Amino acid sequence: MPLGFNRWAYRAKRRTFRRMVRSWFGSAPPGRVLDVGSGTGFYVEQWRALGARSITATDLTGAALASLRERFPEIEVARLDIGEVLESDRSGTVDAVSAMDVLYHIVDDARYRRAFANMFALLKPGGLLVFSDFLASTRKDKRHVVARTRAETEDAARGAGFELRRRAPWLVLMNSPLKSRSRSHTRFFERLTTELRAHPRLGGAAGAALYPAEIVLSRLVRRAPSLEIVLCRKPD
Predict the structure, then answer these.
(1) Total structural domains in the chain?
(2) Residue 199: CB atoms within 10 Å
(3) Taking 90 as the threshold, does the pLDDT of residue 27 lie above it?
(4) Three-class SS string for the chain?
(5) What's the rounded mean pLDDT across residues 173-202?
(6) Tag placement on the chain: N or C end, fewer CB within 10 Å?
(7) What is the pTM of this model?
(8) Residue 94 scores a pLDDT above 90
(9) Integer Cα distance of 60 and 80 in angstroms
(10) CA angle, corner 153, sides to 149 and 159, nearest 5?
(11) How far apart are CA 192 and CA 202, in angstroms?
């Protein structure tokens, strides 16, 4: 999708992320937070806006880490592959872990399950894990992405020890409706994609037009047509 469209999509993600996290912490600011796969730092910004007292940004590549250090000189930045065997002195020290738009890029199932085990180990008792994933009805494997089923994702989370507490649509209108049962929804997004690829300058206008409906539907829709945002708790 064009940059202009994606900017509006990320505005919608920002609102949903903050709403979901606030529903957990209430008026109290988050304590110590670790963000997995921070990339450009979008979710670092969200945690900072939510008042987190301490934030650690993580990523795999040297380029991403260097960019994060330049952009956020006041926070800790560390290399982390969440699917590796974790040898860290951080165990049990973090109040919240976020893994947004990261886990479905772990195509190896053993590494996927280990990622949940690692995030569980990082958290203090009672801590929050917030992540996004497909939770599909039928698994779909691609080279760099795996859309795992709801059963697979929940089994990995519960197998690590988490309690699943809340789910919500990540995007409704502004992402490919891979799980939608509505043919009209699928045709709408296919037509939108075709038009914006042909006329990328219209991306901003299209995103602005869809944004208000996206915000409303993200609260109302129960069956997510695409990715979902999930809150999990590490038991006391």
Answers:
(1) 1
(2) 12
(3) no
(4) CCHHHHHHHHHHHHHHHHHHHHHHHCCCCCCEEEECCCCCCHHHHHHHHCCCCEEEEEECCHHHHHHHHHHCCCCEEEECCCCCCCCCCCCCCEEEEEECCCHHHCCCHHHHHHHHHHHHHHEEEEEEEEEEECCECCCEECCCCEECEHHHHHHHHHHHCCEEEEEEECCCCCCCCCCCCCHHHHHHHHHHHHHHHHCHHHHHHHHHHHHHHHHHHHHHCCCCCCCEEEEEECCC
(5) 95
(6) C
(7) 0.94
(8) yes
(9) 6
(10) 140
(11) 10
3 closest CA partner among 221, 220, 171, 206: 206
Q: Extract the tokens encoding 190.
A: 């296919």
Give the pair of three-digit tokens for residue 185: 């929804």
Residue type (1 letter), 73: P
pLDDT on residue 32: 96
Question: What is the Cα–Cα distance from 224 to 236, expressed in whole angstroms?
Answer: 30
User: Which domain range does residue 222 map to?
Assistant: 3-233
Residues across the chain:
236
